[in-house]
Amino acid sequence: MVFAGSHSPLIYRSVSYLDTDLATADAAPDKNIRKLAEKFRRSPEVEAEEDVAKRTFEIAAGMIKVRYHYGDNRVTASHRAYAKDGSGHQIIQVNSFSRTPTDAQKLEEFTRLQAAERECINEIRDYDRQTKEILKKRQYEEDAIEEAEQEAAEAAEAGAKPTVPQHLLVSVYDTARSKLNTQQTDDDADAEQVPHDYLTPFLPEPIGVNDPPLSREEALAAREACLRSLKDRLVERANIVQSRLDDETATLSKRQAAFQRNRDHMDPADEADYERYCQEAMFRIQILEQRLDRHTELSLQKYAEMDARLRDDPRLRNLATSR
């Protein structure tokens, strides 16, 4: 899978499955995965030794490998390998002046990588589900076409006029158009009363299609009120996500600090519980960060689209006139 044109640094993702003899036919798709791989584009603002170029999740071997980008004038790149069974981690840094990560930093990175592995598996599971739905739909359509061809042949032999199958009367791509046609009468009636509902709450009084436009002062006030209301809603939603992200980050930091203080006196069960909590927390933090980035991107787009709609609104056309 190639992710071209995306704002995410991820540019490539691949999955390899176990051989048919080793795989279980009835197992879930993620149970038969042998290896997952992700490639990332170079980020100039990040040092090459810290900028991930490729992550490989060798699920069958119980290994996670990370390779970083090549630095300037270098023919080798740093890489790291983490064993899930705790047999040891391998850290290779090509820059001899780089500081070797501490055990706590290794554990934190290993936790993030495990969360990324689960997210990647979930993505693969979604791709598999979508593929099965497409194949199922395709098989249904092919069976319907084969049945229609058989009925047409029988009708031709009987001398009757062949009928057009129902599923061929309207293209699957005309669903939106057909729905629009069925609702055209209701939409036209609504348009005669209020052509643009998004602006009506901010008008001094509702304006019909044939009514004169607002004065420049009224149009400017309505436009500013509409944009301000949209901005407030977008900011409120962003604050909610940011608040949840801050809470998760603060809780994780407190848990990590407590672990560092009491690490020498903790039993294996407590360490396993801490590791499990870190995995879940990092997964939640990563999802919230992605949601916040996506919301920020969409907010700018929505604000620009609303501004363009207001500029083209016939009720506010006096905005274009000079004072």
Would you tell me the overall average pLDDT?
Answer: 80
Total number of strands: 6
Share of helix among residues? 40-55%
User: Mind summarizing the main beta sheet?
Assistant: 6 strands, antiparallel
Strand line-up across the major sheet: 1-2-3-4-5-6
What fraction of residues sit in β-strands? Answer: 5-15%
With helices defined by DSSP (H or I, 4 residues minimum), what is the helix count? 5
The structure class reads alpha+beta
Shape: flat
- Spell the H/E element sequence: EEEEEEHHHHH
**pLDDT < 50 runs, ≥5 residues:** 189-196
N- and C-termini, Cα separation: 56 Å
Computed Rg: 29 Å
Tag the structure with descriptive keywords.
323 residues; alpha+beta; 5 helices; 6 strands; 12% strand
State the gist of this model.
By secondary structure, the protein is an alpha+beta fold. It has 5 helices and 6 strands, in the order E-E-E-E-E-E-H-H-H-H-H.
Description of the molecule:
With 323 residues, this protein is an alpha+beta fold. Among the domains are: 10-122, no CATH class; 213-313. Helices cover 51% and strands 12% of the residues. The protein contains 5 helices and 6 strands. The radius of gyration is 29 Å and the shape is flat.
How does the SSE layout of this entry go?
Layout: E1 10-17, E2 33-40, E3 52-58, E4 63-68, E5 79-83, E6 89-92, H1 103-158, H2 175-182, H3 184-193, H4 216-262, H5 268-312
Antiparallel strand pairs: 1-2, 2-3, 3-4, 4-5, 5-6
Helix pairs in contact: 1-5, 4-5
